[in-house]
Amino acid sequence: MPRMDSFVEYTLELLEPLGAVQARSMFGGWGLYFGGRMFGLIIQGQLYLKTDDVTRADFEAEGCRPFIYRSRGREQPMSYWTPPADAEDDGRRLLPWARRAVDASNRAAMKKAAKKAPAAKKAPAAKKPPTAKKPPAAKKAAAKKKPARVRRS
Known about the structure:
- The chain is an alpha+beta fold.
- Helices cover about 35% and strands about 25% of the residues.
């Protein structure tokens, strides 16, 4: 497991008032988890927090930027945004933004669970009851008991 750099350790200190935040290495960066759900990302020395339709406008209004993933010449904005500039080094100002990110993470998990629930509730297709098959010996006995032919003269 890669050793945490000083920025990851510093960010965890800033987030202590939030509760038990864990950092796990992933894809050259670090995922930040609270309650088992990822709510933040640290990559290339920059903190990004989870957003959704409810919180994204708040981040945009503060001039925050999305994390953009580049792959095969394409740019794909992700749902993780930088916190406001005045909150990056101030735990007291960062805390409300981190809470928004945790809330967005929880909403995403509930939304995902709701999508899976209808499929799980579907009743399985009704199966036909298995037909009773005659054992092979019974088939042979039935074949031997054919009615005798009556010969007419």
